[in-house]
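User: Predict the structure for this protein chain, please.
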Amino acid sequence: MNNNHAHPSQVAKDLVVSLAYKLKVAGEIVDEADQSDPLLYLHGHKNIVPGLESALAGMKVGESKSVVIKPKDGYGDYNEDDVEIVPRSEFPEEIPLEVGVEILIEDEEGDEVSATIIEVTKDKVKLDFNHPLAGKELNFDVTVLDLRAATEEELEHGHAHYEDDDEFEDEDEDWDDDEEDGDEWEEYFGEEDEEEEEDED
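Assistant: Here is the predicted structure, written as structure tokens:
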């Protein structure tokens, strides 16, 4: 009997997972997705932080759990070396130089990297290139809503496609990311998100 087209029974590599989740940091909800607008990710392809991906492996549709993820299995430890001071004169006038603003900077290799402004003085701007959740303990409440086999295109691109993806020009990006993702944790939590995926690209 051929079971190749049987509905997947538990989370495993190369399956697209539909996930409802709530992410708390220090008791505060920083991101969530419910049944009406769940997160879709491709399991086993580093679309989400490694600690969460490991915890989800083997879960069944309808199953829920709470997961605590240490920084080393999330967005890494906070690195003081990733904080830089840049002359204010190097910023275009249209960029709002205010604490908390996230901007894109082109690095020496021509790639765009995200940074957060953490201090502004008369002639200098301090930028933090750490992920916003670096060094943080992540507390996830997750529920697996559905599972399906990935399409060949999804496997080739390395991430799940949403139904409205074809309305936009196709981009080969990870969630972590920096999935902002919907901030669909694509840009943060995954694809985004968002970071591990960009590193691979």
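The domain at 15-75+134-200 is CATH 3.10.50.40 (Chitinase A; domain 3).
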